Amino acid sequence: MIRTRVTELLGIEYPVLQGGMAWIADGRLAAAVSEGGGLGIIAAGNADGEYVSRQIGIAKGLTGKPFGVNIMLMSPHADEVAQAAAEAHASVITTGAGNPAKYMAMWTAAGAKVIPVVASVAMARMMARAGASAVIAEGGESGGHVGELTTMVLVPLVADAVDIPVIAAGGIADGRAFAASLMLGAEGVQMGTRFLSAEECTISDAYREKVLKAGDLATMVTGRRLGHPVRSLRTQFAREYAKAEYSGMPDDELEAMGTGALRKAVVDGNAEEGCFLAGQVAARVCRTEPARDIVRSVVEEAEPLLKGASRWVR
Ligand code: TUI
Q1: How far apart are the first and last CA of the chain?
Q2: pLDDT at 69
Q3: Ligand 1 center to residue 144 CA distance, Å?
Q4: Fewer beta carbons within 10 Å, N or C terminal of the chain?
């Protein structure tokens, strides 16, 4: 058993959060992770308030355990979804891809524990001052929108900069990385890519296959030119997008090329036009299994590693 301030704060058995993956992390996946003893998270992505309220209803019908809602701050519906999460009394709200300061008072007044994803020390400090209950320090190994720093560098810097608990994310998919995260100063982890292989995850068969087959160099980052770097699997679409970025294609055409690409990957499994977001750690995700087994095995693998670490010390 591993107990930290994160298990205490969230009232969960294992300090393992499921990342808020747009189009993927629905009420069903979130409920399965929470039922397994971790914290499931419903992703709002670019969806509207009604979608999020419906997914919260689905999760509540499947589990009595706590779960969270992730608000993607670049979404055109961010204001509406922020309101919907407060009205539904989500017990935990995580955020990504921006600064949630303007929503913090509303969320904390609604009783939510707010846990922003941060990619820098300055942002972590700002969130701690604004009343965050914890922060998720996400390194650029992660899938989706990425910051500059790696998990190895970011987590200890953030852990030393704030007094609230730190949750490590980016590059974590097994017990070794979970144990290492605790050594870096984190008190929990968030995993996205590993949960792509959960039985309860409803991505297209093609998406699942690509993740299970991914090797060490299977991902790449595109989108730097428009200021939103994103890590995804190196598919035909990702290569063509990268080529277009350096071709002098006008910004609006480049933007249009990416529109709808996530849906095409998740729902249609379309490798020609779909953007298959995944972290570098896809290389270590090799089989489909129930979400509860993922949560438990990561923590159970870490326990002997942490206990055995004393063998190095003379
Ligand atoms: O947000 C993520 N990952 C995401 S968001 C996303 S949405 C999308 N969908 C389709 C195509 C492209 C994007 C996909 N994946 N992770 C959390 C995260 N947040 N990583 C980095 C950050 C971050 C970056 C800057 C957080 C705060 C921040 O601060 C900016 C500021 O305003 O100071």
Answers
A1: 26
A2: 98
A3: 7
A4: C
What is the mean pLDDT of the segment spanning 66-72? 98
Question: Which residue of 145, 148, 226, 262 sits with most ligand 1 atoms within 8 Å of its CB, as the best mutation to test the pocket?
Answer: 145
For 40, phi then psi, to 5°, come to: -75, 150
Mean pLDDT of the region 14-40? 98
Nearest residue (by CA) to ligand 1, atom 29, is 98
The domains of the chain, with CATH numbers, are 5-202 (3.20.20.70), 219-277 (no CATH)
How far does the centroid of ligand 1 lie from the alpha carbon of residue 50, in Å? 22
What mean pLDDT is reported for the chain? 97
Q: What angle do CA 46, 51, 53 make, to 5 degrees?
A: 125
Instruction: Answer yes or no: are the C-beta atoms of 189 and 16 closer than 8 Å.
Output: yes
Identity of residue 171: G
Distances in Å between the Cα of 65 and the Cα atoms of 19, 21, 72, 118, 136 are 17, 20, 23, 26, 21
Which residues make Cβ contacts (< 8 Å) with residue 294, sequence separation at least 6?
A: 36, 191, 194, 195, 197, 198
Q: Could you tell me if residue 37 is left (phi over 0), alpha (psi between -120 and 50 degrees) or otherwise beta?
A: left
